[in-house]
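Help!! Second protein's tokens look totally different from the first
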Amino acid sequence: MGNNISLKKTWNFNGSIPKNFDKHVALSVPFYSDCHELILEISDNFVYENCTIYDLGCSTGKLTKKLCKRHSSLNKIKVFGMDLSKEMISFAKKNNKAQNLHFKNEDIVKYNFKKSSLFVSFYTIQFLRYSQRKHLIKKIFNSLEDGGAFLFFEKIRGSNGKFQDIYNTNYYNFKLNQGFSHDEIHNKAISIKGTLEPETSTNNFKLLKISGFKKIETIFKFNCFEGICAIK
């Protein structure tokens, strides 16, 4: 198939990954582009003049750029794309330029966010340890303006072994239908083991609730992929 990302023993987002990332992830994540559009539509409810938006784990900045363009008519809005990978941020800066668009090579777990109207995490927090997730989501809640939102997309585990088997089989078949070979699917699964650690949907809701969120709704669900909107 056309996937040119060479898998290492442990998955990361550095080296030659950025230039092939968007193509690879669009094939790997169901309804990838549709979920971008869903995020843009929902963002209309939370973005206003002189507000700040954060895209956490922005990778190449594709979604960050779309958010900035979507709200470009508003005065004094700032859109920040943040990623731990220097290569990703370098790529994002070179390929996405707008006056109110900013990219930062930062650790989102340690970073002190400004008061914001919207946070987006598009399949990012699943790469953090549980204690880091708990700390980050609490920090997101505290940094949101009243009425602001956190759009939280994650790969999830099944609630029991049977559902996990169903998820695994369906996702394996999805990737085969996208053109990945059996070896590519196997090698990717090995490379991300211990790096990508999904939680169940129930546990993600619990994390949001203990962080202070009370208005929480599932806005997207397909197999083991889920999107949540949490409003402060």
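Here's the second one for comparison:
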Amino acid sequence: MTKSIVVFIDGQNMYKWARDAFFLPDDPSICGQFNPIQLGYHIAQAVPPDEDQSEERKLTAVRIYQGSPSARHDAKGNSADRRHRAAWEAKGVTVVSRPLRYTYGQRPREKGVDVALAVDFVGMGVDGDYDIGVLASADTDRVESPYVV
């Protein structure tokens, strides 16, 4: 029997983590970009097998969740977001996005992205859409230390 694996990626938090881990703050914004499908395959291969190791594992879906810049507020960011989305979707990645919220004098913020990810992770699990769900995020909203898992 084959067990299906679905990888759920918190896009912005993974991007920030990659930048912090591998690049300097002054490096160009492209530094930290990652390929969700390659990350999905890498994660799926890292899932430990059952004790009897008799069941095959197969990556059946990669889903990325992120905020999307507004064309009115950030034309360059919106254009880059559309290019990323098209490239990812062409490779079979499901992109779930929510518009960024813009407040005068503040940086744009994601709203509803974490909730969408959590609802899909639980809902798809309950519906039996996967056997193994992997949530990839570097979000520390609910953790006192970024090193506590």
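Reply: Different proteins will give different token patterns, so don't panic. The beta strands are 2-10, 56-68, 94-99, 132-136.
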